[in-house]
Write a structure and sequence with these properties.
Distance between the termini of chain A: 62 Å
Number of domains of chain A: 2
CATH topology of the largest domain in chain A: Immunoglobulin-like
CATH superfamily of the largest domain in chain A: Cupredoxins -  blue copper proteins
Oligomer: heterodimer
Helix content of chain B: over 70%
Number of strands of chain B: 0
Radius of gyration of chain A: 20 Å
Number of strands of chain A: 11
Largest sheet of chain A: 6 strands, mixed
Structural class of chain B: mainly alpha
Number of domains of chain B: 1
Shape of chain A: elongated
Strand content of chain B: under 5%
Structural class of chain A: alpha+beta
Radius of gyration of chain B: 24 Å
Distance between the termini of chain B: 80 Å
């Protein structure tokens, strides 16, 4: 094998190993893996099943909030969310009909919400402002209108 | 003498051609360029993710 071939093969393998190590460390040591909650729910009984029988924003600790949210074409419930600056917010999500996306612009929140499954994802909002929440999985003819906001003050 | 002269002329370009074919400097530069693009893109996405945590 040519010396230069050995060089770039070694460098390529090294880069791959470094990338995989960083991503693995983030996921397993720092808990920064993608949302992968495994709770299930009967999608036909969402409104009768706790906690989704009372969607809303709940204070669960010192500057910790839980947002219990149901999604359906083409709305989020609750659609008016306000939390204080620096709050750690856990979103608990499910959908009543089809697959929806849950993305909060300007943050790393980006989850697929599937019928029959409960999705959980957390974020600390350090910057005050109004964050756009949008569905990023095509869910029907008015998909582009499915959005709301979360206010941090 | 003439034969030797001829063989000298016929071997030299062949040797040069082989050197050109066996040289992988251009390939190394191309591979390095692709590697640099991949690394820069990876670092940019990583930085964007960490900035939003």
């Amino acid at each position: 094998m040519h010396r230069l071939e050995e060089t770039w093969l070694t460098v390529s393998a090294g880069i791959l190993i470094i990338f995989m190590f960083i991503v693995g460390y983030q996921t397993f040591a720092m808990g920064m893996g993608p949302p992968s909650n495994k709770e299930t729910i009967d999608p036909q009984k969402v409104e009768e099943t706790a906690p989704f029988d009372h969607p809303g924003v709940f204070k669960v600790g010192e500057n910790k909030y839980e947002v219990v949210m149901t999604m359906e074409a083409f709305s989020f419930n609750p659609d008016d969310i306000t939390v204080p600056k620096g709050a750690e917010v856990e979103f608990v999500l499910t959908t009543k009909d089809v697959v929806h996306g849950f993305q909060v612009a300007g943050t790393n929140i980006n989850a697929m919400v599937t019928p029959g499954h409960i999705q959980r994802i957390s974020q600390t909002f350090d910057e005050p402002g109004e964050y756009l929440i949008l569905c990023n999985e095509y869910c029907g003819v008015a998909h582009q209108l499915m959005s709301t906001t979360i206010t941090v003050n | 003498m003439a034969e030797k002269h001829l063989s000298h002329h016929s071997q030299s370009p062949e040797k040069n051609n082989n050197e050109d074919v066996n040289s992988m400097k251009g390939t190394m530069v191309s591979v390095g360029f692709v590697a640099a693009v991949i690394v820069v893109m990876w670092v940019a996405v990583f930085w964007l993710y960490m900035a939003r945590v």
